[in-house]
């Protein structure tokens, strides 16, 4: 009996159930999820390849874009293969150590992405408010230090998480009603006092999301003030145009995250499958849309000769976001910006409808 209780309280494996209430639709849900993973992989790999091989793009903002692409690839690869295994093969069983590792990497990488978005906002602030000092301020070593700081912050903030989970007893079973090992989904299985875990999760979220959003908002308020002081309408439009892709990426990244965060903690009347869908949107949408947004906003085509192993070569146009590679026309920029804003509005509207 004691051994049975020990096994129940300290399971060696968890069972990921997928999306509760939509089990019969798992095979259908897997199709768009798989396609999204392909888009994520191809889009972000293209960004990394083109920037790495094009000397004209070796600039601070493009380095940050590379960091963002690498983080998106790592975060999606931490969850999507297992998610597809659940949908296709009902392979939901996962070892406790693997579950904690997945939890660590998903949340730590999300924090790193938030830090990179903050660094990109600071880059735009310096470029617009102090253009003559930009090259002397945003040097290669500074960009490397900012990337390292983002990695260290995410790692340090998430390091306590596995240890806080391991101290818990899971007397409510080992079935996690989720597609991946999300922190609060695992904590809800525990019996006893979970106050420390809940306070820790809330505090980290407020520090990362709240702090980064506050600094990003401050940066853009200073940018807007500087732009409004410009006398030329064309100069104002050009200055704001360099920020449009970054603003869209911020909206894409933080909107699903905030919806998921608030519904998970305060939406007690929200159906469980809505929690899971929002969490998946938070994990899938930013990595998929970030490369598309940067390409659509800037409208830059790089005519590049791509040589592959096996002496196979092709010549084509690779779509990439680069503020400095070309100067899009006002009409094209307005059209692309309007299309993306409308798309973001539709996504936000759908999420609001789901919460009702």
UniProtKB/TrEMBL annotation:
<comment type="similarity">
    <text>Belongs to the G-protein coupled receptor 1 family.</text>
</comment>
<keyword id="KW-0675">Receptor</keyword>
<dbReference type="GO" id="GO:0019843">
    <property type="term" value="F:rRNA binding"/>
</dbReference>
<comment type="function">
    <text>Odorant receptor.</text>
</comment>
<keyword id="KW-0699">rRNA-binding</keyword>
<feature type="transmembrane region" description="Helical">
    <location>
        <begin position="240"/>
        <end position="262"/>
    </location>
</feature>
<dbReference type="GO" id="GO:0004930">
    <property type="term" value="F:G protein-coupled receptor activity"/>
</dbReference>
<feature type="transmembrane region" description="Helical">
    <location>
        <begin position="204"/>
        <end position="228"/>
    </location>
</feature>
<keyword id="KW-0807">Transducer</keyword>
<feature type="transmembrane region" description="Helical">
    <location>
        <begin position="100"/>
        <end position="122"/>
    </location>
</feature>
<feature type="transmembrane region" description="Helical">
    <location>
        <begin position="274"/>
        <end position="297"/>
    </location>
</feature>
<dbReference type="InterPro" id="IPR000276">
    <property type="entry name" value="GPCR_Rhodpsn"/>
</dbReference>
<feature type="transmembrane region" description="Helical">
    <location>
        <begin position="142"/>
        <end position="165"/>
    </location>
</feature>
<protein>
    <recommendedName>
        <fullName>Olfactory receptor</fullName>
    </recommendedName>
</protein>
<keyword id="KW-1133">Transmembrane helix</keyword>
<keyword id="KW-0716">Sensory transduction</keyword>
<feature type="transmembrane region" description="Helical">
    <location>
        <begin position="28"/>
        <end position="50"/>
    </location>
</feature>
<keyword id="KW-0472">Membrane</keyword>
<dbReference type="InterPro" id="IPR032440">
    <property type="entry name" value="Ribosomal_uS17_N"/>
</dbReference>
<dbReference type="GO" id="GO:0004984">
    <property type="term" value="F:olfactory receptor activity"/>
</dbReference>
<dbReference type="Pfam" id="PF13853">
    <property type="entry name" value="7tm_4"/>
</dbReference>
<keyword id="KW-0552">Olfaction</keyword>
<dbReference type="GO" id="GO:0005886">
    <property type="term" value="C:plasma membrane"/>
</dbReference>
<keyword id="KW-0297">G-protein coupled receptor</keyword>
<feature type="transmembrane region" description="Helical">
    <location>
        <begin position="62"/>
        <end position="80"/>
    </location>
</feature>
<dbReference type="InterPro" id="IPR000725">
    <property type="entry name" value="Olfact_rcpt"/>
</dbReference>
<keyword id="KW-1003">Cell membrane</keyword>
<dbReference type="InterPro" id="IPR017452">
    <property type="entry name" value="GPCR_Rhodpsn_7TM"/>
</dbReference>
<feature type="domain" description="G-protein coupled receptors family 1 profile">
    <location>
        <begin position="43"/>
        <end position="294"/>
    </location>
</feature>
<keyword id="KW-0812">Transmembrane</keyword>
<dbReference type="InterPro" id="IPR050402">
    <property type="entry name" value="OR51/52/56-like"/>
</dbReference>
<keyword id="KW-0694">RNA-binding</keyword>
<dbReference type="Pfam" id="PF16205">
    <property type="entry name" value="Ribosomal_S17_N"/>
</dbReference>
